Amino acid sequence: MTKTTMVKAHSGDIPRQNPCAQCGTPIAQPDWIEPGEGRVSYLWTCHACNYRFEAVAIFDKAAVEHPPLAA
Fold it and tell me: Concatenated DSSP letters for the chain?
């Protein structure tokens, strides 16, 4: 899935202005969004200090319906 496709698929749910985990500068949007079973992972890059980090949102139920990876 490309970054553009992911952004379109999750455009209503994208966190905005997340503070950098290193310097606190707000980051407009994540670089990468990866949905999974019961969670969504976000990759953030701070352009002020070049720090990269991942944030994970965990849900009680699966956030996105998807088929199993293998049979």
Answer: --HHHHHHHTTTT---SEEPTTT--EESS-SEEEEETTEEEEEEE-TTT--EEEEEEE-SS-SS----S--
